[in-house]
Every structure is written in C-alpha cells, then in structure tokens.
Amino acid sequence: MAGHSKFKNIMHRKGAQDKKRSAQFSKLSREITVAAKMGMPDPDMNPRLRAAVNAAKAQSVPKDNIQRAIDKASKGDGENYEEVRYEGYGPGGVALIVEALTDNRNRTATNVRTAFSKNGGNLGASGAVSHGFERLGLIEYSAKAGDEEKVLEAAIEAGADDVESDEDGHAIWTSIDVLHPVARELEKVLGEADAVKLAWRPSLKAEVGVDDAATLLKLIDVLDDDDDVQTVWGNYEIPDEVMEKLG
Questions:
Q1: Minimal CA–CA distance to 193: which of 208, 209, 182, 178?
Q2: What is the pLDDT, as a whole number, of residue 67?
Q3: Residue 226: which residues within 8 A CB-CB, separation 6 or more?
Q4: Residue 213: what pLDDT?
Q5: Of 40, 37, 39, 46, residue with least CA distance to 69
Q6: Residue ranges of the chain with pLDDT lower than 50?
Q7: What's residue 10's pLDDT?
Q8: Closest Cα to residue 232, out of 243, 247, 246, 219?
Q9: Where are the domains of the chain?
Q10: Helices 105-118 and 210-225, axial angle in degrees (round to 10)
C-alpha cells in the first residue's frame, strides 16, 4: 500500500509546479484526442474518452482545451498517435513499464532507451517485466471523498475487487471488463473520480534503498518529462525513511 501511495506522490510531485502544467495539459489533451478518435466523440458514449476528460478536469485543464482536443479528433486534424509500451529494469532491478502515445516510434524508442541507459537501467524486450504485473482497472479518489470505511463499502457495493486507502486518498481496483460500470456506480455515492484508467499492478513489490532510490527517481523524472510518455508504472516501494533522507 505504501508503495502505491509513494509511487503516486512521486509521479505527481512535479505536476504541482507551474512549469510542469503545460506539459501535463499537453499529455492529457493527447489522450483525449486519441480516445475520441478511437470511439465516439461524446464522453457519455465513449468510456475511455469520459475517463480522459475527467482526468483532465481533475488537473484543472480549461474546458476550451478539452473541447479543442475532442474537436481535433472529430475533424481528423493533427498527428496520428499510436500506443506503445516499453519494459525494462531500473536501478536495483526494479521493474518498470512505460506507456507512450507517439507519432514517431523511432524518436520515442530512442528517448526511452537513452533515459534507461543514462540512469542506471536497461530497456528490455516486450514482455520482459509485464509478467510480474496484473493488468487491472484503477479508480482513484482523493481523501476528501470519504473515510476508509465509506469508500470500502461503496466499492464492495459497486463490484470492485480491492481498495487501498491512506492519508493521500483511495485506490480502487477492478477487473478490466467492469472498470467503467464500477466507476459509474461509485460516482453515485462518492462523486466524480480523480482518475479512471487501466493500470499495471505489481504482483510483488521491490524495496529500494537510499542509493538506488535517488537514481530511480531521476530515471522516472526523465521519462515523465518526455512529451510522448503518458505513464510510468513500477514495482518499487520506497520506505518513508529513505524518502526523508533524499529530502
């Protein structure tokens, strides 16, 4: 559980800074455009688009930006993005899965490979680490949605499989095929979720020491800074005392 919340904190700690907002908006808009192109341009008729729009709203993306991203797909404007997944090992043998949306596979592959090699990791072949993860649905709520008991009860009623709660919020896990129906049921009780998405959940966590943690966080930051990279998933767990030493 700590690993999940630590991971969440790490992935979002830079997003809070103003200089990161533009890049974050761009990634969210790209996901909206891709989702709208793959299905109906109406969020009510397209679960992936609805999730993308909700994620954008949670990050305070202006309504105009969201509508422009949908319109771009409807008009057939812009680049044709494809989904690509990279797998590899970070410092300390940590398993990482990198998901990207790209209009140039060669550029993205080169950037991801360079990020790994320069920061104590190495890129593997497809399937190198994903066997150690489960592909699941993930619904995220902030702590203000309710206490642990309220969220757990709502999740059970909605048909979720598992809930992880801590002071940062709640992570509700489902099988892929019921992700959006469960999200709709939860919305009736808890309100709109911060995120509804497909996720990679590690079967086993790898605890990372202070030496490897610093390099690992640098690698994740470099990957996260790449415009093509949408999400980085890992099986690492960084103890509180290690995070404190890193400042």
A1: 182
A2: 93
A3: 100, 108, 111, 112, 115
A4: 94
A5: 37
A6: 1-16
A7: 47
A8: 219
A9: 2-74, 82-131+204-238, 134-202
A10: 160
Task: Give the position of tokens 């202070």.
Answer: 210
Q: What is residue 244's predicted lDDT score, i.e. its pLDDT?
A: 87
CB count within 10 Å of CB 201 equals 17
CATH number 2.130.10.10 is the correct assignment for the domain at 134-202: no
Task: Read off the tokens for 31.
Answer: 């996901």
Cβ atoms within 10 Å, residue 186: 26
Under CATH, what is the fold of the domain 82-131+204-238?
A: Alpha-Beta Plaits (3.30.70)
β-sheet bridge partners, residue 233: 97
Three-state DSSP string of the chain: CHHHHHHHHHHHHCCCCHHHHHHHHHHHHHHHHHHHHHCCCCCCCCHHHHHHHHHHHHCCCCHHHHHHHHHHHHCCCCCCCEEEEEEEECHHHCEEEEEEEECCHHHHHHHHHHHHHHCCCEECCCCCCHHHEEEEEEEEEEHHHCCHHHHHHHHHHHCCCEEEEECCEEEEEECHHHHHHHHHHHHHHHCCCCEEEEEEEECCCEECCHHHHHHHHHHHHHHHHCCCEEEEEECEECCHHHHHHHC
Note the pLDDT of residue 5: 43
- Note the pLDDT of residue 58: 83
Give the integer Cα–Cα distance in Å for 8 and 17. Answer: 16
| Rounded Cα–Cα distance for residues 31 and 1 (Å) | 27
Give per-residue pLDDT as tens, 186-205.
Answer: 999 999 898 899 999 999 99
